[in-house]
Design goal:
This protein is an alpha/beta fold. It is built from six helices and eight strands, in the order αβββαββαααβαββ. The longest helix is centred in the C-terminal third of the chain and has 16 residues.
């Protein structure tokens, strides 16, 4: 058995070196360099249009950088590094039920979708009573809860990339999300997140990454 190299032991789950991002012909940011370590949360700041969502999409593998490199555990997207991406859009089908929608999201993203996992996730978000309701009958806050419910199934220290996750959540929903974030950081998970900092629990450790500092 070969011993792990020092680089593989110490490399952060996510790092960027000289990263640049473009939308059409417009460069959003350039020369972005940062590291996100296990058990850390990095809050991405910046004015509207600066590229916060675009950065998360790059991390999730949904876009390509104009320049620079993203590394996962010190390498370019190794198979063992799982990225859990929740975008600003809820990505739910209007005619599907709540439980069907959650099961679909879990399956396509490689999470557990058995009956016990579904019930536990819905219970965490207070959605058991609505599990058979069509998505079209839900409020915006309830829809956001369904989209975020797959985080309650996670048990591995994956990398979470969350785009405006607090949007449309009421006070109880904010508490539900903060509980999940705290548990994820405690098990060594990492979080890259955008949105309103006021909703984040004061006890959750985080650093800030301001994309205005890398304006092109």
């Amino acid at each position: 058995m070969h011993a792990a190299s020092p680089a593989s032991i110490t490399a952060p789950p996510l790092s960027a070196r000289g990263l640049a991002c473009e939308r059409g012909s417009r460069r959003l940011f350039s020369d972005l360099t940062f590291e996100l370590h296990a058990g850390e949360m990095l809050w991405v700041l910046g004015r509207n249009g600066r590229g916060k969502t675009s950065l998360l999409r790059l991390v999730a593998g949904l876009g390509r950088a104009a320049q620079g490199q993203l590394c996962f555990d010190g390498a370019a997207r190794p198979a063992q590094r799982r990225v859990v991406y929740v975008g600003h859009a809820n990505a739910l089908k209007e005619d599907a039920s709540v439980v069907e929608s959650l099961a679909f999201l879990l399956r396509i993203h490689g999470g557990r979708s058995d009956a016990a996992a579904l019930a536990a996730a819905l219970a965490h978000w207070g959605l058991l009573a609505q599990q058979d309701a069509p998505v079209r009958t839900l409020s915006q806050g309830q829809r956001r809860r369904v989209a975020l419910a797959r985080l309650a199934v996670e048990r591995q220290p994956a990398l979470w990339a969350l785009d405006e996750p607090y949007d449309a959540l009421d006070a109880n929903g904010i508490d539900c999300l903060n509980d999940l974030l705290g548990a994820h950081l405690q098990r060594g998970g990492s979080v890259l997140i955008t949105g309103h900092q006021a909703a984040l629990a004061a006890g959750l450790p985080r650093r800030e990454l301001d994309l205005d500092d890398c304006a092109a």
